[in-house]
Amino acid sequence: MLETPKANRLHIAIMGRRNAGKSSLINALTNQDLAVVSPKPGTTTDPVYKAMELLPLGPVMFVDTAGVDDTGDLGRLRVEKTLQVLNRADVVIIVVSVDQPPGAWEEELVQLAKKKGLTTLGVVNKVDLSDLTGAGVQRCLGWFSAREVPAVGVSALQRQGIEELKRILIKHLPNHWLDAPIVGDLLSPGDLVILVAPIDESAPKGRLILPQVQVLRDILDHRAMGLTVQDGELKLALEAVKTRPRMVITDSQAFARVAGTTPVDIPLTSFSILFARYKGDLESSLAAINNLHGLAPGQKVLIAEGCTHHRQKKDIAQVQIPKLLDARVGGPLEYSWVSGGEFPRNLSEFQLVIHCGACMLNRREMLYRVSLAREAGVSMVNFGILLAYMHGVLDRAIQPLSKRWELRGEIL
Q: 14, 24, 120, 273: which sits with the fewest CB atoms below 10 Å from its CB?
């Protein structure tokens, strides 16, 4: 049974000081002993990701973090990793213990979370401590209230107040989590969409790649029809179907071949371009094309992928894109590559960032990367947009999105 991809889960970061009960709270929320619990402060060292079904929300990703008050050289490194979680979180739950009222540490977390536009909730834990209930709990709740942070008192140990916390979480879900379709808003029930999925040496054995699966599911969710073929069979498919396709969606690497086969009156785009608007900022990625004309041999270019995979001899990131760009600028550029969760904080040394469709990243992390590029004054372009431009079909590839697309640009 296929699991919900990590990037499609609501990311809930549990943060606070050591021994505030962060791990216990995760166990209480999920009604399972997922996280290691110990009375010894500092049990959790590095961020730990726990994929769960949190009813009634559905698939979520809990991030259990080290205490923000960790000490020493190693502790400072742990705190740095903890704070980096804010770059990919959708919701932050700040946990305080009733016997350790909120102060400077929690103030810093609240301000950082607000600066990044994160949904922030407060939890006053250990309300079962009989000699500290009542006034102590109210003081802690009042501290959160004064900072406009919704908060609730709980006992993670006794699972008291957990359902109320869930209700508050549902009430304050971030707007961007009201998930926009990948392609469904461009379709009507009964529409036929042809998906072109080349099966070459770079294709995973026995399955389709994640963007192809997600686009197909979105088509079906919107009561449209999806027909998946390889690029060599596209002409046969177009001749065989009686219904005129609403659009053709292709792997970006096959743009040139597919554009030559698909009649010009049938809209054409790519999986990667659809993900540019679904996960990132389509408008800024299109604007980055204008800056390609300023590239010169020897300048630095960063190519980023959100996943790690085995490299093939015709790898799109390490072979195809550099080959096309070098030919266009008239000489070799200086390339750097990052993949998975790696992404440099300072992008100022690069003239251009080229990023994949980000199917393995959640939207908030992708928007964070976009914001880093903006901060450095560096253009960031999506793989599919770049390849469509290089093959002379960008206007055509964007046209299906232009009439009904609205910018979802809640940049951090």
A: 24
CB 302 within 8 A of CB 269: no
Domains and CATH numbers, the chain: 6-177 (3.40.50.300), 184-274 (3.40.50.11420), 281-396 (3.40.50.11410)
Q: Nearest CA to 388 among 250, 200, 234, 287?
A: 250
Quick: pLDDT tens for 55-68: 667 788 999 998 99
User: CB-based burial of residue 300 (10 Å sphere; 0-12 exposed, 13-18 middle, 19+ buried)?
Assistant: middle
**Nearest Cα to 124, choosing from 156, 87, 98?**
98
Report how far residue 21's alpha carbon sits from residue 129's, in angstroms, rounded to the nearest whole number. Answer: 13
Contact 376, 344 (CB under 8 A): no
What's the predicted TM-score (pTM) here? 0.74
Note whether 180 and 278 are within 8 A (CB). yes
Helices (H), 18-100: 22-30, 72-84
